[in-house]
Every structure is written in C-alpha cells, then in structure tokens.
Amino acid sequence: MTTLQRPPRRTPLKAAVTLALCGAALAAPAWAAAQQAAAQQAAAQPASPAAAVRPGDDFFDYVNGDWLKTARIPADRSGWGAGAALAEETNERIVKLIDAAGTDPHATAEAKKVAVYYRTFMDEAAIEAKGAAPLQATLKHIAAIKDQTALAHALGATLRADVDPLNATNFFTENLFGLWIAQGLAEPAHYRPYLLQGGLGMPDRAYYLDDTPRMAELRTKYQAHIAATFKLAGFDDAAGRAARVFELERQIALSHANRADSADVQKANNRWSARDFAAKAPGMDWTAFFQSAGLGRQDVFMVWHPSAIVGASALVSSAPLATWKDFLAFHTINHAARALPKAYVEESFDFYGRALTGTPQQQLRWKQSLDAVDAAMPDAVGQIYVARYFPPEAKQRLQQMVVKIVDAFHSRIAQLDWMAPATKKEAQAKLDTLYVGIAYPDRWISYTNLKVVPGDAYGNLQRAELAHYQQQLGKFGKPVDRTEWSMAPQLVNAVNMPMQNALNFPAAILQPPFFDPAASDAVNYGGIGATIGHEISHSFDDEGAQFDSQGRLRDWWTDADLAHFKTATAALAAQYSAYKPFPDLAINGQQTLSENLADLAGLSAAYDAYKASLANKRLSADADRDFFVGYAASWRGMQREAALRRAILTDGHAPAKWRTFTVRNLDAWYPAFDVQPGQTLYLAPADRVRVW
C-alpha cells in the first residue's frame, strides 16, 4: 500500500452503498482546466535541487531542499507534504460539492443524504444542547450486564468489520476483537470471517509494554485521558475506573502479537471451527458472542492472532465484571467523541492529537465533519467527487501507463536468471489475471438502507457503522468479488490486495504532482508510474509472493527460488535497518520490508516502462534526471517528531525521506547524477539490491 493520506482514526476501511450522479459529469475542457490549475499550484513549489547538497549524499534533500526550507506543518496536522497538500485541495472541492447538493433541488436522494449527514456534524449548537444524552441508552445497557453471558453478548455486539490485516498500518481497534471478511486463505471461492486482536485505546502493544521514558509518559497521559472521559460523562471514581481499565488493556496487550508477527500471513493461517473456540480459547461464552455479532451461522473462522484471542478470552472470565463494564463504557464514549459536545472532542484530541502525534491544533470543524461523512458513506461522497472532477475519458492515459508497466514486469520476470520456469509461469499468470481499478469502481455501494436523521450526529454515526457491518456480513454465501474496491475514490492513496490479486488507484491520487497531464513522461513515470509499479510489485513482495494467481495462499516457489529471494530481501531489510532517523530509534527493516521491496521493484519497472515509451521519440538529455527527480518530489513531506516516532514503531512503511533512498539500488541513478564512491548513498554494484 502506498500510504500518502491515511483514513481518519477509527474510520472503517469501507462503509456501506449506490448513488446516482449528482449533476452532470465535468466536460473534458473544464476537467483539463481543473487539472491545469492543480498543476500550476504544484508548480508554485517545484522540485528545486539544492546546490549545497550532493544527490549522492542525500537525494531527498537535494530534490526537496528549497521546499524544506520554507514549508511548515499546519497547526492541525502531524505532518505535511505533497500527498497532504493534494488531500487538502481535494477535501476543499468535496465540501463545496456537498454544500451544493444540500440546496440543489435536482440532487439525488443519496447526495442529499450525504449533505444531511455532513450538516448534522457541523451543527455544534445542536450537539451541545443534547449533551451526553445520546450515550445514555448504551451506557444503561452496559450497566445492566449481570454475568459472563451478558458480557459476551455485549462484547459481540461491539464487533465491527474495520480491519484489513494485509493492508493495515497497524492493528489498532478499540473493540475487543477486529473482524475482516474476505476470501479464505486456502479457499478463494468463499468468504470467511477473520478474527484479529483488538481492545487497545493506544496504537500498539509497545505503547503499553516498552520500557522507555516516552512510552511511560504516554501511558500516564492515556490513563489521565480515560479518567477525564469518565468525569465528563458523569461517572464517579473516575481515577479508580481509569486505573482499572488501563490495567485491563495492559493485560490484553501482553497477549498481542507484535508488528512483525502480525504481518506474517503464515502465522495467521489458523482455521478454527465454531466449536473449537470453547476448547482453544476458554473463558468467553462464544455462542453468545457470535450470536450478538451476527456470526452465529458461521462454521469456519480464520483466527489471525490466536494468542490474542486466547488471552482476551481468559481475561473475560478472570477480570472483574465491573472492570469490563467500565472498559465498555469508556470505549463507547471514546469512540463516539467526535459526535459529542465540544468538551469530549477536545479531550479526545488532547490525547490522540497533541500527546500521541504532537499535533498542536485541532482541525477545523468542517474537516472533522468531512472525515465523519467520508467514514460513513465513502462511495456516496466519491461518486459526487468523480462526477465533477474525473470523467471516464480521464482514465485512458493512466490505463496506457498501467499496460506498459505490467509489460515491464512481464519482461523483468522472463529475464530473471535465478527463477525456475515453473515459478516464472505462475508469476506471469498473476500478471495476466491482475485486476487494476483506475479512479473509481465499476459498481458503487448503495446506502439506501442507511437512515440519516437531521440533528442526530451520534445516532447517524452508530447507524452508519452498523450499516457497514451488515453490508460486510451480507457477503457470506455470495461469490467472491475480485473487483471490489477497498478505497474510496477521494482518498489520496493506492493499494494492492493480494488475495483478490487486484489493485486500486483512487481518482484523488491521479492528479499533480503524482500525475500531471502537462508534465513530461519522464516526470509522470517517476511519479505515478512508480506508484503503479509499487502496487503491482506487491504481488511479488515477501507477502504477495505467498499468494498465487487466484489469491490462494500456497507455496508456488522452488526451494532454490525461495532461498535466493530471502537472501536478496534480507539485504534490503539490512539496508533499511541501518537508517536511523533519531539517534535512539532506527527504522525496522523487517517491519518495512514489504513496502521497501515494492518501492524498489516498482521504481525499476516504471523506469523500464518509461524507456519503452520513448520508442520513436526524441530523448531529452536530462530525461533520466527528470525521472528520478519526479520520484523524489512525489515523496516530499515532513512529520512532527512524535508522529515520526509513532510511524517508525507501528507503520509498515519507511518514512518518506528514506523511501526516496530506493534510488541507490538502481544503476541508472548513478550516471544521471554523477554519484561517486565515498558519497553517503553510494553502493558498489555488487551491493545494490536486485530482486525483480
């Protein structure tokens, strides 16, 4: 996954539903004008090589040095860069479209529903007037829990399908478990429910267990946040409740898998029958849990994190019932904070924004409200957006680039001297059957069954999450849809889904500076071309290579092929583990290996495709330089220290600056910038990592 702009915290990966277009599609000249305006905005801060920095010493600073001197992270952001700026512009466009839909008598029913959802979140006065009243029914239900069976029912009722372990930057979910509904690892024709670890209010087990001053400080602040949340909701003994809830979460964290183990799909391949849970994970009334979760009819489950399921289940019976009730109450309030009065919103931001990511200022209310409606009805918002800013004909140039880059992968695989013919055959089959979604899905999700009530922000939030969950449950018994999208068109991002053998490139990323219709092929292949190559190459990285052309987890490599692959990838992991963004914190080369491999293979294939595109064209003397500058400019960005430290600990991606250093493994980069031995990034030819 190319992470440029992540979905908001606690946002479901997809929500639920089909909306007819709001207004006519933008005519081609108008779309071109919009693209040109965006290109001009990007050009206002062009890639400007810094004379004081040699490209062979720090290629990121060489390309982005002038920008770094003047750029500032906005007060409501934990980071800033090319992707964030594009996301900001995209969001401003979307809000105008939503406002227009709210007053347009010709807008579709679902476009109006989007506008109502958005306006309800914007109406802070109405939310203030209701106070904590919307919470009371749920809190009373929690308070009425009398025994372990009722607790299991309550825990099951909180389950939501909002975690994709193959593409998660972390496995952060406040519900006791996460749920993912996807095809079986060994059964690509059937949807299966996957249970994952959860139950934490902080991003990862390391935040509870690591013995460092920074983590100790965050633990103190988190416990204070729990207490403050209880106090706002009118609970007595807020400090005592907070201490007990924190200790329960700490015990849950003890059984969690670490980041590296979570990313190991082989360790996740655990098929349990419904009857297995009582014996393998005693403590939970699993019949009650699955019944309330809507999973009572499922006979087969995939348990991604067995140790966490076992550990949490044991705690259900061993931890005091009162503590579990406080746990449920706190997370009910914490999760819904954005739909509650300002005091709750500010308390939530004080910890999750200021303390956890170092962001000094909260986002404006319109941005919070847009995040909320994006989470609730992503496809409905996306359909409004692409109708105005991305007509069908805009796909053509991108589709041509995809064809060339796929062809480059075919060629690179055919020429590998270390891969056996049988392995090559399956690798080529993966490319032949690859689904590439450009801009937006062929079929939109419908939100007809979602009830949006004016003035009921909390209720709308709850109903939207439940609608998404029910839509996911509705997959059971139906044919697996390999073309289903996992990203909304308005997201500045891209993704590879190895079990579907499919890619998504949302419309919002297909704009300058990643793709610029006015730019040269060299710049575009270095920008969006490398991103396309990155996502294709995920099909052959340390994770994707474990899945065949049908998305089945199976070993299709010879022993010799696998040995070579592991040796080459170990060298890349070691290369990244040597980078230290802070004196006390290095990048984890194993944790970021999949993304680093995708960067390397993707950039290499994009370079090949770019060269192939030059047939019968006059080559600029600076073409190779433009290609690599385009790549480095696409990763232009910066983060606050707290956010960068968090990312290094929990993210499967290396930070943007160090992703730029991928260029040191490509032979063509050296003559393009006259990189010589003795310069910091120089690698001898034998030390340059070559995999695909």
Q: How do the helices and strands line up, and which of them pair or pack?
A:
Layout: E1 2-3, H1 28-43, H2 59-70, E2 79-81, H3 82-103, H4 109-122, H5 124-130, H6 136-143, H7 148-157, E3 177-183, E4 191-197, H8 206-209, H9 213-232, H10 238-254, H11 259-262, H12 265-268, E5 271-273, H13 276-280, H14 286-292, E6 300-303, H15 306-318, H16 321-335, H17 342-357, H18 365-376, H19 378-389, H20 395-414, H21 421-432, E7 435-439, H22 457-473, E8 493-497, E9 502-506, H23 521-537, H24 559-577, H25 593-613, H26 623-634, E10 637-639, H27 641-650, H28 656-660, H29 669-673
Helix pairs in contact: 3-4, 3-19, 4-18, 6-16, 7-14, 7-16, 9-10, 9-17, 10-15, 10-16, 18-19, 20-21, 20-23, 20-25, 23-25, 23-26
Describe the structure in brief:
Helices cover 51% and strands 6% of the residues. It is α+β, with helices and mostly antiparallel strands and 692 residues long. The longest helix is centred in the N-terminal third of the chain and has 22 residues.
